[in-house]
Amino acid sequence: MKEYIKGANPYMPMWEHVPDGEPRVFEYKGEKRVYLYGSHDTLKTEYCGPDQVVWSAPIDDLTNWKCHGVCYTATDGGILYAPDVVQKGDTFYMYAAESKGSRIMVATSKDPAGPFTNPELTELGFDPGILVDDDGRVYAYWGFCHQFCAEMNDDMKTIKKETLRDNVIKHSVTQWSPDDNMQDENDAFFEASSPRKLFGKYVYVYSKRYYTHRPEYGVYEDCNGFLSYKYSDTPLDGFKMGGDISFNGGEVIPNGDGTNSMTYRWGNNHGSLMEVNGQWYIFYHRQIGTDEFSRQAMIEPVDVAMDKNGKIFIGKITYKDDEPVASCPVEMTSQGAQVNGLDARKIISAGYAVHMWGGAKGGYNGGMGGAYIKPVYEKTDSASSPIVDITSKLTVGFRYIQFGMISPTKVSAVIDAKEDLTVNVRIDDYKGKIVATMNMKKGDKKAEASVSNLVGKHAVYFEFLSESKNIIAEFDTFTFD
C-alpha cells in the first residue's frame, strides 16, 4: 500500500498549523534534536491560540518530526503569539507572548520539550528574540514596527536599563509605526526579531515590510512576506544592511517585460536561521491563500558566506572568483529538507503546491477570490490539504518531484471534477513540455494517464482547462506508477 509523503514543505503534518517558528538545536539525554517553538493557529478565524506545542526532529533527518504536545498554556486563558526558547546552564527558558504579545512571560523547564512552568512577567515586548552569547551574557530583541534591544540581567526577566536601545534597525512606514523619522525604505523592520551568531558576528533576522515596489519579486504593494537580516560586530548597535533570505510568495516567474510575478499569495512571515548537522536552514511559514489564520511551517536550505571585508551573505549566493558578491532569497519549494525532490511513487498532497497561477481572473491563486489550499485539522497520517475553487487556465506547481532512474508509466490523481475538463501535466515550467493529459467528465473523482521517458528531478505542473467559466475542480492528491 502506498505511503503519503511526510516531512516535505510544509514539514509538519498537513493538519498542524504552527507558524512563527523559532528553531533551536538542543542536546538532551545525549541526543541532539532540532526543536521548533512557534505560535499555534487553532482558533481558525484569528491568529494563534491559547496554547503552544513543541515539535522536534533528529539533526540527521529533518523529515522525521515528532510532536511532544502542549508545552505551555496562557496563564490568563488568552491568546499566545510568537515565543522563543533558549538554554542557559541546564535550564530552558520559554519567553511566552501572552495577551497577543502584549505581556511576555518567562517560564522554565529542565527538558527542552517542556512543560514550561513557574511563569514570571518580564520587561520585554512584542515578538521577543533571545541570544545567549558565547560568554554567557544574554541579549533580548523585540518590537512591532518599532525595534528595541537590551542586555538582560541574570534573572532572565529584567533588562539592564542603561543598555536599552531602539531603532538599531529602522522601521517601515505603516499605520502602526511611530512618527519619528526613523523609517528605512530598503531594510524596514516590521516584527519577528530573531538574533543568531554567524562567523562570530551578530545576525538579526526579522520580518521586513517593503513599502516600495519590488518587481523582481512580483511585489507591487506593501508587503511583509519577507524574512531578512542585518549583521553587526556588536550585539546592540552597528547593524549593517544584509539582505532578504526568504519570501513566501511562491515561485517567482518572469512576465517577459523585465518584471516578475509571484504565483502564491504572500502573507506575514516569521522564523529564523539554524545550523543543523553542518547545513544552514531558514525556517519560515506560509499561508493557505485566503487568510493568515491557518499558517504552516516551512524550511529551505540556505548558503552562508562572509567576504574578505566581513560582509555576511545569506540565502542564494552569487560568487565571483570564489568570493561572495550578492545574495537573494532562496526559492520557496515543495521539497523543503528533501533536497533530492519528493518521491514520485508516494502519494503527494496537492497542498504541497508552491505555484497557483492563472485561472479565470489571472494572477496568483487564479485572481482575487480564486483557488486556495483548504486547511485540514483531522489528525491522521493520510491528511491531505486539497486545492479548491479551481477555475480554467489555473496551473498548480510542485518544486520538485524525483522520478529516479526508471520512468513511471502512468500518473494518477484524485480530482473532483465540477465540470468537464482537461488536465495537462507539464514539467520544468508551467508552460513546459506536456507529459500526460487526463480528460475528465463532470462528476469524475479520479483520473489517470500514461507517461514515459520521465526520469530524474523535475518541477511538475498540473494545468486545468475547461470551457466553463465556473469553478471546475478540487485537486486532492497525485502519484506516479
Could you please describe the fold and organization of this structure?
The protein is mainly β. The protein has two domains: 22-328, 5 Propeller (Tachylectin-2, Chain A), CATH 2.115.10.20; 342-480, Jelly Rolls (Sandwich), CATH 2.60.120.260. The protein has one helix and 35 strands. The strands form eight sheets. Strands 24, 26, 29, 31, 32 and 34 form a six-stranded mixed sheet that branches. Strands 25, 27, 28, 30, 33 and 35 form a six-stranded antiparallel sheet that branches. The radius of gyration is 23 Å and the shape is globular.
Feature tags:
2 domains, 35 strands, Tachylectin-2, Chain A, 6-stranded mixed β-sheet, 6-stranded antiparallel β-sheet, 481 residues, Jelly Rolls, single chain, mainly beta
Summary?
The chain has 481 residues and is an all-beta fold. Helix content is 1%, strand content 47%.
In whole angstroms, the N-to-C terminal distance is 12 Å
Most strands sheet: 6 strands, mixed
Indicate how many domains the architecture comprises.
2
| Individual helix count | 1
CATH class of the largest domain, named: Mainly Beta
Strand content: over 45%
CATH topology of the largest domain: Tachylectin-2, Chain A
Instruction: Label the overall shape.
Output: globular
**Uncertain stretches of 5 or more adjacent residues:** none
| Quantity of strands, as a count | 35
Q: Structural class of the helix and strand makeup? A: mainly beta
Q: Can you tell me the CATH superfamily of the largest domain?
A: Glycosyl hydrolase domain, family 43
Radius of gyration: 23 Å
Level of helix content? under 10%
> What is the residue-averaged pLDDT?
96
CATH architecture of the largest domain: 5 Propeller
